[in-house]
């Protein structure tokens, strides 16, 4: 994450559900006090579109710096590896090849913090919402899971890691992202207190059943903000395909490992 420094008196967050777009979990960042601080007062005024700070414009500005202003071959040579920007990419990403058959991908996302809200410049999947910033619950969700595991020696984080791995190797589940899976584990964790490592398989199957149920409803409420539907960017077809794949896995869990 790459934090942006915004002047507090020049910028304010606007909840997406309070706009005509009605997108809970997303925010606009409005330019304020232009009568006293005209355009150009802030460095980020160059990224304003229609009176709001554009995440797309911020990403493009940052990408130009990453792509054109940094000598990545020289950086890689100094680190004894190969470093290069990933093109094309929805976000700003670097590929680091440190062995012949081993690579690491690093993703950079500009973020803005307003009090306890973390807003990131990760584009909405629908083009008409290109000007909104995504609220990130990742750190808060992960912290809660880690605290719960430390408290009872549970397997929540291990179950999440297993679920992420399954979705990574199975193309049919590729539309489920880390944020959705983390929220799912956290939601189940609040209802099921016993997460002994001996119950890992049982809890994993329980998560699959719960995910099938949320997909049937087309809604996965965010544990920290229930009005936010973490499935809102999935199309009906994607939801049907995900639900069918996971439903079949309930009777044949090994199918999740087929690529």
UniProtKB/TrEMBL annotation:
GO terms for biological process: mitochondrion organization; positive regulation of mitochondrial fission. InterPro entries: Mab-21_HhH/H2TH-like, MAB21L/cGLR, MID49/MID51, MID51-like_C. It is found in: Mitochondrion outer membrane. It holds the Pfam family MID51-like_C. GO terms for cellular component: mitochondrial outer membrane. Keywords: Membrane, Mitochondrion, Mitochondrion outer membrane, Transmembrane, Transmembrane helix. It is a single-pass membrane protein. The keyword Mitochondrion applies. Residues 155-242 form the Mab-21-like HhH/H2TH-like domain. Residues 1-140 form the Mitochondrial dynamics protein MID51-like C-terminal domain. This is Mitochondrial dynamics protein MID51. It comes from Acipenser ruthenus (Sterlet sturgeon). The lineage of its organism: Eukaryota, Metazoa, Chordata, Craniata, Vertebrata.
């Amino acid at each position: 994450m790459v934090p942006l420094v915004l002047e507090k008196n020049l910028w304010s967050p606007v909840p997406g559900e309070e706009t005509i777009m009605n997108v809970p979990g997303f925010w606009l960042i409005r330019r304020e006090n232009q009568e006293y601080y005209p355009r150009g007062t802030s460095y980020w005024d160059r990224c304003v579109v229609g009176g709001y700070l554009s995440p797309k414009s911020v990403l493009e500005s940052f990408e130009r710096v990453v792509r054109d202003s940094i000598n990545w071959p020289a950086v890689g040579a100094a680190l004894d590896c190969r470093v290069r920007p990933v093109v094309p990419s929805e976000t700003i990403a670097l590929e680091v090849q440190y062995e012949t058959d081993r690579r690491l991908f690093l993703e950079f996302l500009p973020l803005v913090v307003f009090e306890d809200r973390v807003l990131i410049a990760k584009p909405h999947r629908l083009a008409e919402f290109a000007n909104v910033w995504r609220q990130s619950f990742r750190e808060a969700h992960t912290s809660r899971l880690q605290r719960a595991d430390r408290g009872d020696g549970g397997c929540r984080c291990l179950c999440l890691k297993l679920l992420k791995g399954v979705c990574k190797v199975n193309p049919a589940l590729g539309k489920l992202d880390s944020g959705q899976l983390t929220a799912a584990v956290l939601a189940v964790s609040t209802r099921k207190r016993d997460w002994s490592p001996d119950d890992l398989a049982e809890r994993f199957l329980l998560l699959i059943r719960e995910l099938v149920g949320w997909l049937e409803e087309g809604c996965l409420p965010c544990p920290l903000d229930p009005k936010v539907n973490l499935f809102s960017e999935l199309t009906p077809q994607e939801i049907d395909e995900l639900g069918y794949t996971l439903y079949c896995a309930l009777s044949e869990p090994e199918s999740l490992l087929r690529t």
